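Box 3.1 — From sequence to structure: tRNA-2-methylthio-N(6)-dimethylallyladenosine synthase
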Amino acid sequence: MGESKRIYIETYGCQMNLADSEIVLGIMKKHGYSLTDDISKADVILVNTCSVREHAEQRVIGRLSSFLRYKKRKPDLVIGVLGCMAERLKKRLIEEENLADIVVGPDEYRKLPQLVNDAFAGHKGIAVKLSKVETYDDITPLRTEGISAWITVMRGCDKFCTFCVVPFTRGRERSRPLDSIVKEVEMLSSQGYREVTLLGQNVNSYRDGNYDFADLLSAVAQVDRNMRIRFTTSHPKDMSNKLIQTIAEHPNICNYIHLPVQSGSDRILELMNRTYDRKHYLELVRKIRETIPGVSLSTDIIAGFPTETEEDHKMTLSLLEEVRFDGAFMFKYSPREGTKAYAMGDDVPDEVKVRRLMEIIELQQKISYEINQGLIGKEVEVLVEGESKRSSEQWMGRTDTNKVVIFPKHESVKPGDYVIVRINKANSATLFGDIVKILHEKNLSKNSLVSSLN
Ligand code: SAH
Ligand code: SF4
Ligand code: F3S
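Predicted structure (token representation):
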């Protein structure tokens, strides 16, 4: 027996792709492969790709071209393209530009060991069929070390927002059984994980027999009260009162909801097929804030959707002002072939899109800054994640409202501990402060703003 073959993997796109890469590595490890973070030592290079915007695709193509130099040095190196670009670009990647040996879509990862083997023998391979049932339920993901784990609870999307490729790249909605998710959370708890994020393109459509997403959240929250439970993404159409109530009831379900609105204009929301209007969205936000005091909200915005006028754009700005989100992910509209919006043309000139996007970003940054300034002097519960990227003298952690907090290290605190930090400085993205109390275990009150409870 020789040494095991080494895999290097790079992941683009959303958290679901990150979680899928862990599933892929779980599958490959079972077949005797090991992981390397040194690309020059790899026998297999895998790139898990994203198609959501053109820019995301171009980045991957650029990256793949740069791998050809490793291939020159090591001719039997296998290069594999996984994920959302697979179906769309399989021909181009394998036949036309010869950038990959294998192309594997998100529902075909079980075939990967065989395809890689065939590639070592010189046979290229494509597997891009989408499945109505695949959830990788029995696969143990190879997780990167840390205190936080992802679990994909549903795959695919049936919403067909007119701008979005995801229903095409990921196929139909399907859910993983509740029992097996709860078992996985139990295992993660016994392994010392302190945070679990339940993932799906639209977790609110989760369904297992009679169980809905609120039932799943509640079951998962009861596994370990010291474990923080997060989830993403919620669709504003399907956010039930029961779900809001469930978040409010469980101290360890985080006070944070990512609720993509996309636009503030009813005309654009209609063209996007988002199936809700501004009024519904604002009413939902009101209900959420009333039921879950201290909740933090974030959103996604698209600037420059086809036919978007200056007036539509102003509606988006006014919605941002009305809601005052804690944060937002803001994008320039990118036409995707095969989607309904693609047929609507791409009539907003690029410089207009860029200017609108800048206005949206500027406004949101100002709002985030103001909200975070309001936290100065407050004490917040923080789960310590690890060293700050900027300084080895500082820890980085998050509030349960998903705000990043940086604070000086303390010798008896380690990643995975809960601490109380008093905030003394803030910008639009980060809070800074000092530890005032070490909890180790989670504070079992609902609100992360400890000082407001004293
Ligand atoms: N399922 C999630 C998000 C999927 S993609 C949801 O519904 O919110 C993440 C975000 O990318 C979307 O919310 C949207 O804001 C953005 N996005 C998707 N397609 C896009 C496109 N064609 N151009 C620009 N942004 C896009
Ligand atoms: Fe795309 Fe809409 Fe589905 Fe989100 S809900 S993945 S934006 S189609
Ligand atoms: Fe991208 Fe696929 Fe996620 S298109 S955003 S990686 S579902």
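Summary of the box: The domain at 6-127 is CATH 3.40.50.12160 (Rossmann fold).
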